[in-house]
């Protein structure tokens, strides 16, 4: 009998992050995150409204618009960004529901590249590695630069394929 090929650790933990993301009720984006120390899973979280509060599927998205100045081809440009502020992001929930001591030297696997706010929080959380799958271009350049400054390993899994039952259409 031929032995089935085992998944590598990155695929294993990212699969778990995607499965966790299926708990989200956000119509715009399902995000899951897992905290890993070595090969030990320490916590999971997904994006959603605070417990006991109506979520986006019940009360609608709460969209806030932001204007940011960015440099593009040597010129300053104003860029408008829309963000839902009803939900707590998966990375934020992961930090809320795990202990600092467990995060020291750990890795976070997250379905989506962290936004600027989550990246700031993760940078101070004690983690030493962040692994993501889907890019988040709105904040990508400045997040990558900060992670480089902090010495946090920050890598995308470009060739990763999420489990079919976890895939949703993502809107920006």
TrEMBL record:
GO terms for biological process: pyrimidine nucleotide metabolic process. It comes from the Bacteria. Zn(2+) binds at residues 89, 115, 118. Residues 8-154 form the CMP/dCMP-type deaminase domain. Keywords: Hydrolase, Metal-binding, Zinc. InterPro entries: APOBEC/CMP_deaminase_Zn-bd, CMP_dCMP_dom, Cytidine_deaminase-like, dCMP_deaminase, dCMP_deaminase-rel, Deoxycytidylate_deaminase_dom. The keyword Phosphoprotein does not apply. Its cofactor is Zn(2+). Belongs to the cytidine and deoxycytidylate deaminase family. This is Deaminase. It comes from Paenibacillus azoreducens. The lineage of its organism: Bacteria, Bacillati, Bacillota, Bacilli, Bacillales.
């Amino acid at each position: 009998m031929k032995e089935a090929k085992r998944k590598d650790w990155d695929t294993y933990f990212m699969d778990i992050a995607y499965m966790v993301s299926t708990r989200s009720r956000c119509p715009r984006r399902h995000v899951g995150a897992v905290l890993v120390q070595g090969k030990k899973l320490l916590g999971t979280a997904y994006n959603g409204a605070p417990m006991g509060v109506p979520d986006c599927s019940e009360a609608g998205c709460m969209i806030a618009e932001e204007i940011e100045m960015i440099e593009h081809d040597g010129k300053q440009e104003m860029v408008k960004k829309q963000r839902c502020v009803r939900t707590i992001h998966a990375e934020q929930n992961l930090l809320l529901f795990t202990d600092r001591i467990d995060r020291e030297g750990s890795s976070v696997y997250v379905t989506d590249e962290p936004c600027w706010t989550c990246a700031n929080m993760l940078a101070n959380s004690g983690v030493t590695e962040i692994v993501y799958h889907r890019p988040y271009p709105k904040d990508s350049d400045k997040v990558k630069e900060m992670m480089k400054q902090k010495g946090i390993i920050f890598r995308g899994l470009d060739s990763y394929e999420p489990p079919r039952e976890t895939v949703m259409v993502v809107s920006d």
